[in-house]
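Hey,
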Amino acid sequence: MIPRTVALIKQLELLPHPEGGYYKEVYRSGELLHSPDFEDSRSLLTSIYFLITAGNFSAFHRIRSDELWYYHEGATCIIHVLHRQGGYSKISLGKDIDSGEKFQGMVNGGDWFASETAGDYSLMGCSVAPGFDFRDLEMADRNKLILAFPEQEALISRLSRA
């Protein structure tokens, strides 16, 4: 890893994330949401730092809530989204807004997504509403996802772990 990523991991107290990359929860709302969509209550909002480094990626997964991503620093972060109603889209988060990059990007709850850096690292922020709970995280089964999105077989094979 480059010295900047080592420093970020230490200074921000980042830990390995099960989907890939590093994270640190920085906010969890004390207010709870009670909804029939969840078996238990959820925080109204959660927020994390999320770091992806070169040679690593956040594997295809989905959560039940909407996730808003924020670009902080480093290279462009590419988020690949497989929409639950069908189709693919790509979100490029970064500072080059003249070339179409965005500072923020939304992944809708229930959509499959994976992310990777276009350089040495990408430092992002992610807010989830209703708040993130590991019980709502589903890692993709590569073969099942390829059956659902056969036109994206190469991408799914590259950005999944099982």
